[in-house]
Amino acid sequence: MKHAFFILFLFPLIVLSQENEDFKIYKNKNYSIEYPLNWNLDTSGDNGTEIYIYPKESNNSEIFVENINLLIQNLNDSTATIESCKILVEQQIEAMMTDSKFIVSEIVNKDKHKFHKLIAEGTYNTYKFKTIIYTWYFNKHIYTLTFVTLSEDYINNHTLALKIMDSFSLENNN
């Protein structure tokens, strides 16, 4: 019976705790995010990003390296809502990508914060991309967390990207 307890209850906990050993937590006063140790975290602010996370090794590094980035925009607009942010993000994707298609576009509640989840695909220059975008409107700021990959690589790397993106948490530090 003791062995059954170990197998049914303790073994899954051990496995779950070992999975998290391969992740590192980045935290600042406004948010936190977890990312794999075999990915790089760039906080330099290049290209207007707050953070830029990408794998240390990528199969298509000559063409495009899949990445997750965070943009933060100060709106100072008291009339903005997550619904208006949803419309804005959809319009931006349609303007940036030709043949854009929305696979998922929904408002989600998580940890007392609503966010817009968008999964889209389209062409930019000559390459076909697939992207996952999470957008929050919080304290008069738009937080846009985006995963971008070549469409052909999406099936191989979207699960890890979702795990990273789902770890993102806004901090209430007013």
TrEMBL record:
Source organism per UniProt: Winogradskyella marincola
* Protein name (Swiss-Prot/TrEMBL): PsbP C-terminal domain-containing protein
